[in-house]
Amino acid sequence: MGEQPSDGQVALVSGASRGIGLGIARALTRAGHRVALIARPSEALERAATELGEHALAVSADVTDPAEVTGAVAQVEEALGPVDLLVHNAGSADVVGPLWEADPDAWWDEVAVHLRGAMLLSHACLPSMLARRGGRVVLLYGNLGDRDQPWCTAYAAGKAGLLRLAGQLHAELDGTGVGVFGLHPGLVWTPMTAALARDPEKRRWLPNFARRPREDYGTSEAAEEMIVRIAAGQADPLAGLLLGAGDDLDELREQANQLRAEQRRTLRIM
Length: 270
Description:
By secondary structure, the chain is α/β, with parallel strands linked by helices. It has helices spanning 19-30, 43-52, 66-79, 104-132, 153-173, 191-198, 200-205, 207-211, 221-231, 249-254, 256-267, and strands spanning 10-14, 34-39, 56-60, 85-88, 135-140, 178-184, 242-244.
């Protein structure tokens, strides 16, 4: 992968007005990067960018809208420069309950935030990365992307789609200098998690979730640290693999070939 300086890169983080996305944006700013925070228009987005200072840019956009994504990336490039690191974190967990009782449009909209958002942002950022033969894309696939949990089909389908998108993109970009990573941020207490826990209807379908002690949840600190290390190139030999926020990168680099073979077997449809 093309060498890039660890300082002064341009990072674009979606879903960055709160929760894990804001934590990642904050960590990247502290590491010396210029960071564009993309989310739907809100006071929270503006507050987040103000908090992070002069090297942060708030960009309002719906990541499922092609025109808005194209315009947002153009705005980032004009203000900060070409995107070196794309982190797709935007997500939704509003559709809870039996699939056959769900509103079809709401169900599909939730999948779109995860998967269509990743596709559109990658579509907009990759041409510049390819022209410069360097860049990194990180897709946060999160809980339920790799395991079964009833009553969350839209969320799970979107996250599972990100798993395959990461693998497919890696295969297409092999040898171009652009690396793709799937990252599981761990079990993190976020505003989205809190909203699920407060909603009586959602708790009815997710009783185990509702009873889970607050202390079982962690913070986004491990994911933040992992993203900063990815930006610095420390995970480049692991491009294409699915990483966890708490993984030991030094150990994983020594096992990269074995891990690739194991992951192919695990994800293969028999």
